[in-house]
Amino acid sequence: MKKIEAIIRHFKLEDVKNALSEQGVAGMTITEVRGFGRQKGHTEMYRGTEYAVDFVPKVKVEVTVTDDRLQEVLDTIMRSAQTGQIGDGKIFVIDLSSAIRIRTGETNEEAL
Known about the structure:
It is a single chain. By secondary structure, the chain is α+β, with helices and mostly antiparallel strands. It has one domain: Alpha-Beta Plaits (2-Layer Sandwich), CATH 3.30.70. The chain is 20% helix and 36% strand. The chain contains 2 helices and 6 strands, in the order E-H-E-E-E-E-H-E. The strands form 2 sheets. Strands 2-5-1-6 form a 4-stranded antiparallel beta sheet, covered by helices on one side. The longest helix has 12 residues. It starts with a strand and ends in a 17-residue tail after the last strand.
């Protein structure tokens, strides 16, 4: 099992959600996050005053999949989240040793 964490732009969330749903992904967790990568934030003007935005707002999408579905889900996220501009985000893949469904006690792949 793998956990996929994708940090994406806010306005791409609906595209990613719809694309994953079409692929049969049963569930996901969405978190609003702030951070920066190579771009180190940016500056904006507000009422004539320039100020720095150090942490850029993004959305983190978390999905857990079986090993055999990993590449298909990664491709789906890449295709639906990409704009071709700096700041499109990152995807992290994490190995999961176990998963448990609290309601039924099912474990591992049955819990997904």
